[in-house]
Specification:
Helix content is 77%, strand content 0%. The protein contains 8 helices and no strands. The radius of gyration is 18 Å and the shape is globular.
């Protein structure tokens, strides 16, 4: 296993998180979550530490295909059908959310010093990167208006949970990851269909407008 490769992947995910928080257009946001998903698809092969089996190849291809291609395609399909404003319209400014993401990264690095990390952890940056990725998803959920952006935030938060499992417990039960991936696939698909139908019935998919709906 190349330490340089692992650290490069971790840094790539951190940069993808910052790019997600800085995205001001929906198309660029989808492109960046696809980039992050592709990096995550490579991680199972790296975590195998030279003992790559057919199962590992299959799992890695599934992660790459779902997170790097299928989910972004579903999101782009929904975006084209719904045709919302291409601008993201944040509730909190971009600079502030980027600072919150960086603060979360520093906090996780500080917290890591006091926590017992497993000896077989994939990288010293693994915990901090996974924590920051989950935080990025949470920030996208609470600081962006569009329902489509909320789905992306949910997807990024799950990417962080996936990172916790793959990097801190590389020999953990992969079938659990597979079942989670399939659940996530169904969730993103259903949410995409739901947003499409909501857009057909109402003029806007802004979360403020949806929250004000009465029975």
């Amino acid at each position: 296993m190349s330490t340089v490769l692992v650290e490069s992947l971790m840094i790539g995910i951190i940069l993808a998180n910052l790019a997600l928080l800085a995205s001001c257009r929906v198309r660029s946001l989808i492109g960046r979550v696809a980039f992050q998903g592709m990096i995550l698809g490579i991680l199972p092969l790296v975590a195998a530490q030279g003992q790559i089996t057919t199962y590992t190849w299959g799992f890695s291809l599934m992660v790459f295909g779902l997170k790097g291609i299928a989910f972004p395609w579903l999101l782009m399909w929904t975006f084209r059908r719904v045709k919302p404003s291409p601008e993201i319209e944040p509730l909190v400014g971009y600079n502030l959310t980027i600072l919150a993401g960086l603060a979360g990264l520093l906090f996780a690095m500080w917290l890591q010093r006091g926590l017992p990390m497993p000896d077989h952890a994939l990288s010293d940056l693994a915990f901090a990167t996974a924590f920051m990725t989950s935080l990025t998803g949470f920030l996208l959920l609470v600081t962006r208006k569009k329902a489509l952006t909320q789905v992306i935030g949910y997807l990024v938060a799950e990417n962080g949970i996936f990172l916790f499992g793959v990097t801190l417990s590389p020999h953990g039960p992969l079938w659990m990851e597979l079942s989670t991936l399939l659940d996530l696939f169904v969730a993103v698909f259903v949410m995409g269909i739901a947003i499409h139908h909501i857009n057909r019935e109402f003029d806007s998919i802004d979360m403020d407008s949806l929250s004000s709906l009465k029975d």
